[in-house]
Amino acid sequence: MHKKLVFWVEEYLYNPNPTQKFISLLLLPFSWTYCFVMYLRFRSKTAYDFGIDIISIGNLNVGGSGKTPLVTALASRYEDVAIVLRGYGRNSRGLFVVSDGSKILCSVDVSGDEAMIYAHKLPKAIVIVSEDRKIGIAKAIEMGAMIIFLDDAYSKHDIKKLDILIDVQSKNSFCLPSGAFRERLWKSKEAVVVKEDIDFKRVVELKNKSDKMSLLTAIARPQRLDSYLSEVVSKNYFEDHHSFTKDEMLEIIQRDKASSILVTYKDFVKVEQFGLPLSLLDMHVEVDENIFKIIDNYRRENSAKKD
At what angle are helices 67-75 and 289-306 packed, to 10 degrees? Predict the structure, then answer.
């Protein structure tokens, strides 16, 4: 029941049918109120300068947009880098150092799936999860970081940073609860908007392919994977950040007589411990050099101000 509700909401927010569109219109007064409150919240904040280069990669809507591979690609260019994120979907609260830049210090249950991806793919980066990003930033500075990437922190208007926003197309352009938008790009808010296939491009590699693969994934709007898939026996979609059990996977293998389970890296970090046959749909992004120039110019401007 929970899974069906999640998928219904995703459809409602991004590709509403006529009934869902009608519900969306009925909720417009609440949407306008919500958006106005978010604007007042933005106007009430004063950005605190931590004295370090901070780059936020985010999007204005709820749901997946490719933030994790983009953050990974950008952060891989720099030395003494830290990544700070909330750690959505983790079974823990508070601040945890997931990786100190040399080793992983906790399990995926504690870190959450996205933080563990960073820890695996950026073994020299400090990775910190914290609901309070300011506390996370302070810890990263304490640990020697010289540049910090924030995952999904556009709404943290009380932090001085460079905001990079991924433009996500949706047939529903309203704010919550009528649509998918958490906030607007406020006129007085500086941000760099980037578009897929223009500013960055996804590259997908299929690793450890087998003859009979069953797709298993827990990402937002999993239909996004369809264009990258080779033939699979079945597609098994779970709600975003779902924590899989070994029994769930064994049931799929036995039902489909599959030779392997095909997963994304976000799923892989949660299921590799089970020791089952896995194929990996591994994704990274190639970033246009202009994005790195924007970041480097921001860093130079900050350095000049300090001098």
Answer: 60
Running DSSP on this structure, what letter comes out for residue 221? Answer: S
What CATH architecture applies to the domain 47-199+288-306? 3-Layer(aba) Sandwich (3.40)
Pairing of strands 162-166, 53-58: parallel
The greatest distance separating any two alpha carbons of the chain, rounded to the nearest whole angstrom, comes to 65
**pLDDT digits over 235-275, tens only?**
999 988 888 999 999 999 999 999 999 999 999 999 999 99
The contacts of residue 18 (CB under 8 Å, 6+ apart) are: none
- Rounded CA gap, 185 and 60, in Å? 8
Find all residues with CB under 8 Å of 127, minimum gap 6, and list them. 82, 83, 85, 97, 98, 99, 111, 115, 118, 119
Determine the Cα–Cα distance for residues 243 and 238; give it in Å rounded to an integer.
Answer: 9
Q: Where in the chain is the domain with CATH 3.40.50?
A: 47-199+288-306
Evaluate if pTM is beyond 0.85.
yes
Strand partners, 203: 284
